[in-house]
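Final report, closing paragraph on structural work. Over the funding period we assembled a curated collection of sequence-structure pairs, and we close with a single example.
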Amino acid sequence: METGVKPEDLCQDPEYAGRLEYHGDKEKDCTLRIKDLRERDSSTYLFRLLTDQEGGTYTGSPGVTLSVTGLQVKVTGGHQDKTLTCITTCTLTDNPTFIWYKNGQRLDEPTSQQYSVNSYYSDSYSCAVEGHEDHHSPAVCVQGQICKRVTYTKRRICVFKGSTVDISCTYVGYVTSSLWFSPKRSASWINKLTPEDLTRNPGYAGRVEYAGRESGTYKGPFTLRITDLREEDSAEYRFTFKTIQL
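Its predicted structure, as stored:
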């Protein structure tokens, strides 16, 4: 902040519209909450106190430096035995518990930042931090660059009720069958462990269509389109596919 320039309240900044909350009590607590964090939110934040006493204002310096990071999986090791490390661009606070995914499926173990594997060449892995599972890393191949993986174009989407939304992903794999599903709808599945196609769910009847699906393709975009959106459609949506064994 330049000397002599009057600071503006973050609430007035369009970049933070709808994402800020003040939790202070005007006495001792000056907590600021920022939601839906973005990498460009990385900055130094300062608290400015206005009083009716002589001098008028006080700014707490040097402030708090916030670093917003994403997750990446780093692969090291020999031809067969590999070590996977879930890395960030800064040190996470609160001693986080890590979650690992193999081919999109959550693993019960391990919960540490590193994971040792001896894996088939088609397997992919990603990681997340407990409590923030919506923000796991992109999937990486353990052997080479050809492996089964799904990458979602957007992890969060906000749309109006009554409108239409396209939820897209790209995938790598020799596909024999594929579908979109929502874990929120698992109560209606015949087998609670086997996801069911959204197109068969009565709650989406006449409102769901797929674009870009081609059995037997190796790569491709695949889009789920939901029309006439309802509030109860708010949920997590996932893409899954089956492949031929090479």
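The mean pLDDT is 82. The first strand starts at residue 20 and ends at 22. We thank the funder for supporting this effort.
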